[in-house]
Q: What sequence folds into this?
């Protein structure tokens, strides 16, 4: 009764995240997203600076949460980027949420 | 207390209607003539305020658990519709601003704050809400008004809030305040401050603003000069003002448009009266095909709007984790539909729509008043911006796979569980409303030509959902921010139209199951409404089968002649 096909598959907007994320790979993935939302180059994003300083507005912050959920198959509060407002803080949050991994210890 | 909800709501609607009396009676103190005079004088109708005091309108805004009459958001909209039917300024200025303020406390306040606010409202007091500052508009995370946190946990209020309804006469204000100078969403908090707590020399009430419509509303502002207030003023957690506001918006965005539908009802009634009475080209205006079609289309716009309002308000109770996107769709699309209908009706009314007094003078008042609906607390673009980031998630996770919304979502008179203030989510990843459209495209009856037309239109809308899905998945990152391209905003528009179509289908099918409303159960109106929505999407649907348009026009004229409302409730009106 309900068609589950989604029609043509569009090109993904981003590279997929690595299967076994490390602090470094997560940080790169996040920087890439923040840069795209804020129309800045990845080099311009300081991992310790508040994201709102780069013009990441609240709508984009919600979009970023959706990306995290889809990428890591992880349910996160839509306010995750509000409570962890830098790339570094988000990486720490994600490492914790994704469970301990030897390569990040 | 769930049993008997419908009887309680219907009784209050009837009571309010009777209290307002015949709008056309020139000696009625709350009839059209007197309300127009109050508007010309820039005053809220004193007789109207007295009437609402006697009715205890404020109790509608207070949950039953706190001693009020607020059981259901759809019923709140239905009762307030009776006030907006008469006077938008009274609806907004007497009361709804108090509701918009109170929702923050019902959602995030502690026991003391909830009890105290209920006490103020049930005692007939008013509460103002101040989210916005003129300099920052809907970009309210840039607000500058400060509540400086003091070492002992108390606050110092400093700065100004502009264009606040009832600022000068409210007993308490809900103030969206900066509690941290750093940028970002965690720098804002909501405070409930009572007038009596503020030293008078620390507060200036700003001069009143003149406005195009709702001229009787007392819009001014507040300017605090380092005014100390106790720490207990904080509503919810420090730094959580933005989430609280976004949760509260779900109730106000879905409820307000349904209230304002009453004003559009009066406007349509006024123009039908004109069209039936005036003779041109040797016939009455309502016999001129173009005029007749415009009136029928306006009626459809009201019905479509009410279907979407119904789904939006009932979703708060039945699907609270999906309500965010529906509330924004209601607040975006319904004002646009109603104002579009008003514009078309003004053409039928001709030169009379420009007159500020007389039999048809109320039309121009409603025409001026109605746009306030899309200005207060989330303009159209802000609502679209709430929808846009959710589209890719819904596209990936929900559309064409999620479960259809329950039939109870579409039941105008069905009981509901109590308002789950604590369960409102900021975003959703499910959409049972669209899923009900997809299901209807496959399973709705299609025996008669009119039913077949409904089914074909539902299929067309399902095809549109597929296109919206593809385009949502392909949205580039910069189109998922507040600075998204016009194309992304257009996508949110099409999605809202599609949700309206799903709501129409749901209401029609539910009415068929219940069998207690022959008009709503008739596929004729559903086909005509869906046809109008598909055309709004820029598509060219097949012509409607014979009888659909005629059935809608006939119902419009019946309700006009019998003085019944032009919405889902077919309510008997005074006069």
A:
């Amino acid at each position: 009764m309900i068609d589950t096909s989604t029609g043509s598959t569009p090109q993904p907007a981003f590279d997929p995240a690595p299967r076994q994320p490390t602090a470094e790979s997560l940080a790169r993935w996040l920087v890439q997203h923040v840069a795209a939302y804020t129309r800045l180059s990845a080099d311009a994003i300081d991992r310790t600076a508040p994201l709102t300083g780069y013009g990441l507005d609240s709508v984009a912050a919600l979009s970023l949460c959706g990306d995290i959920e889809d990428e890591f198959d992880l349910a996160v509060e839509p306010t995750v980027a509000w409570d962890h407002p830098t790339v570094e803080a988000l990486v720490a949050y994600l490492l914790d949420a994704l469970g301990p991994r030897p390569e990040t210890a | 207390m769930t049993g008997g909800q419908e009887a309680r709501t219907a009784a209050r609607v009837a009571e309010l209607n009777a209290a307002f009396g015949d709008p056309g009676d020139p000696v009625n103190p709350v009839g059209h003539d007197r309300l127009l005079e109050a508007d010309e004088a820039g005053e809220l109708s004193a007789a109207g305020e007295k009437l609402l005091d006697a009715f205890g309108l404020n109790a509608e805004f207070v949950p039953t658990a706190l001693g009020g009459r607020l059981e259901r958001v759809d019923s709140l909209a239905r009762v307030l519709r009776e006030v907006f039917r008469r006077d938008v300024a009274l609806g907004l200025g007497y009361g709804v601003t108090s509701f918009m303020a109170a929702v923050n406390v019902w959602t995030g306040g502690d026991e003391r704050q909830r009890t105290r606010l209920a006490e103020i409202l049930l005692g007939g007091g008013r509460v103002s809400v101040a989210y916005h500052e003129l300099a920052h508009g809907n970009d309210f995370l840039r607000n500058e008004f400060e509540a400086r946190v003091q070492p002992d946990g108390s606050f110092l209020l400093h700065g100004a809030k502009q264009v606040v309804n009832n600022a000068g006469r409210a007993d308490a204000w809900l103030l969206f305040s900066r509690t941290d100078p750093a940028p970002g969403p965690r720098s804002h908090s909501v405070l409930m401050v009572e007038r009596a707590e503020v030293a008078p020399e620390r507060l200036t009430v700003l001069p009143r603003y003149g406005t195009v419509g709702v001229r009787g509303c007392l819009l001014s502002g507040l300017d605090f000069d380092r005014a100390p207030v106790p720490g207990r003023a904080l509503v919810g957690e420090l730094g959580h003002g933005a989430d609280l506001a976004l949760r509260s918006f779900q109730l106000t965005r879905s409820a307000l448009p349904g209230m304002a539908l009453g004003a559009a009802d009066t406007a349509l009634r006024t123009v039908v009266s004109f069209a039936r009475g005036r003779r041109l080209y040797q016939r009455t205006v309502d016999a001129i095909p173009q005029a007749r079609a415009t009136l029928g289309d306006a009626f459809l716009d009201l019905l479509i709007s009410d279907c979407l309002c119904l789904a939006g308000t009932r979703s708060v109770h039945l699907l609270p984790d999906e309500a965010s996107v529906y509330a924004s769709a209601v607040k975006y699309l319904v004002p646009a539909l109603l104002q579009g209908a008003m514009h078309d009706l003004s053409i039928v009314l001709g030169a009379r729509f420009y007159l500020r007094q007389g039999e048809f003078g109320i039309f121009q008042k409603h025409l001026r008043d109605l746009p306030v609906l899309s200005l207060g607390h989330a303009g159209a673009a802000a609502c679209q911006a709430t929808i846009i980031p959710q589209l890719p998630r819904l596209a990936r996770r929900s559309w064409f796979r999620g479960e259809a919304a329950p039939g109870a979502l579409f039941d105008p008179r069905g009981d509901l569980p109590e308002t789950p203030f604590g369960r409102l989510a900021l975003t959703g990843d499910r959409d049972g409303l669209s899923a009900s459209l997809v299901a209807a495209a496959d399973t709705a009856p299609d025996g008669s030509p009119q039913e077949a037309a409904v089914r074909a239109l539902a299929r067309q809308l399902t095809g549109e959902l597929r296109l919206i899905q593809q385009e949502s998945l392909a949205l580039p990152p910069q189109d998922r921010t507040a600075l998204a391209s016009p194309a992304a905003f257009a996508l949110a528009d099409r999605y809202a139209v599609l949700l309206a179509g799903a709501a129409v289908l749901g209401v029609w099918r539910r009415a068929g199951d219940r069998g207690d409303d022959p008009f709503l159960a008739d596929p004729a109106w559903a086909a005509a409404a869906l046809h109008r929505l598909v055309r709004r999407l820029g598509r060219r649907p097949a012509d409607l089968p014979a009888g659909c348009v005629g059935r809608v026009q006939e119902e419009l004229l019946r309700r006009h002649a019998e003085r019944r409302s032009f919405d889902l409730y077919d309510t008997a009106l005074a006069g």
